[in-house]
């Protein structure tokens, strides 16, 4: 698939305002947004969902746990790198970011219940086990946070799938956190990657 990474100048008119706002907020237009600009409604939806997710009852650290977990579960090289950088900006401890990138359990029991549930939802397409749901609630989370995790999964699914299709090149700003998804050997998951 040949997908263009748009600049503010090359983007469709309907996307140029959103790209301008992104550039003002981040100081540059990430390649993901440049790709999404090819479908202005996708870019707008992603930005709006991101804004809504940032206003959930989940803390900034918990939000990054969700976003990094979904991206790693979906094997999105671009988003794992980008959110590793963003997580550090939100003061997520390095050991948590490393564990999320490596797909290993977190030492913080509450955050681990969030990570495990998020991975379960993403991996099983919205059908998590009763065990992961029970652990999530036992850690002190409520129905509101369960549904907010779904919002984060939806947000990252939009970007992860966009990056898979476009093979979005990693921005230099995220290169310090470059990540390659581990090779999976089950034929069902690797079908689309061939």
Detailed description of the structure:
- It is a single chain.
- With 194 residues, the protein is mainly alpha-helical.
- 63% of the residues lie in helices and 0% in strands.
- Helix 4 packs parallel to helix 6.
- The longest helix is centred in the last third of the chain and has 24 residues, at 143-166.
- The model is unreliable at 187-194 (pLDDT under 50).
| Major beta-sheet overview | none
N/C terminus separation: 13 Å
What is the highest CATH level, the class? Answer: Mainly Alpha
Mean pLDDT: 93
CATH topology: AhpD-like
- Helix content, binned percent: 55-70%
> What overall form do the CA principal axes indicate?
globular
Give me the CATH architecture, please.
Up-down Bundle
Q: Radius of gyration over alpha carbons?
A: 17 Å
> What's the total number of strands?
0
Report the CATH superfamily. Answer: AhpD-like
Query: Can you tell me the residue ranges where pLDDT is under 50 for at least 5 consecutive residues?
Result: 187-194
Q: SSE order, as H and E?
A: HHHHHHHHHH
Q: What count of domains describes the coordinates?
A: 1
**Structural class from helices and strands?**
mainly alpha
Strand fraction equals under 5%
